[in-house]
Amino acid sequence: MFHVEKTEGGKEKKYELLLKQIDALTEGETDLIANVSNASALLYHSLENINWAGFYFAKDGELVLGPFQGLPACVRIPVGKGVCGTAYANARTERVADVNAFPGHIACDAASQSEIVIPLEINGEMVGVLDIDSPIKNRFDETDELYLKKFTEKLGERLSEKSR
User: Where are the beta strands (DSSP E) in 27-82?
Assistant: First the structure.
């Protein structure tokens, strides 16, 4: 049985624990769905002030909803549209302080006010994105971006051990 550990201290210390936890959760497991399911649950229950955490995967020119935690979400997002589609199209992290100011934002949950989307690579190929929403404007900062990139890199490395 896995228990989500909470820790006191600064944001960096909490993220370091999160990185250890994703390593432990994925150790010996290479299945894509199993690992991203656990990753989304870990993030959802570990990060403060978020209302959605999950994955979208590239398929036939669009992003298709994968495992997530939170309210039901948009199933398909065109590449280049919204925060997720833009992050995927540009192969870079998108950190949006106010989603209402993002041109073409796709509102899946009306409560979401800020968002961060990080590309996910497996075996050097971008396969999708990690998407995290918050009901608070300007929720994500440089530290979140740095550690969430490390999180997706660790997850991608684990999934590279045995490709999808």
Answer: 52-59, 62-70, 76-78
